[in-house]
Amino acid sequence: MQKLQQSPGLNLARGCFIAFAVIWTGFSCVFLLAGLSAVVVAFGASESAGPVWLSFLFPLVALLFVAIGIGLFVFAVRPLIAAARVNKPEIALSNATPRVGEELTLTYRQTFKRATDVASIALQLIFRESATYQRGTDSVTVTDDKVIQQFDYPGRRYEAGELFNVRRNVMIPDDAMHSFAATHNKLLWLIRAQIKMQGWPDFVEEYALTVLPEMAR
Amino acid sequence: MANANIQITLSDGEPMGALLRYEPGSALRGTVQLTTDGAINYRAAYIRLQWRTEGRGDRDQEKCGERLLAEGALVPNANLSKDFNFTLPREPWSFAGHYINLVWEIAVVVDLPLARDIVQAEQFILAPRR
Question: Smallest Cβ distance to A182: which of B56, B60, B93?
Answer without folding.
Answer: B60
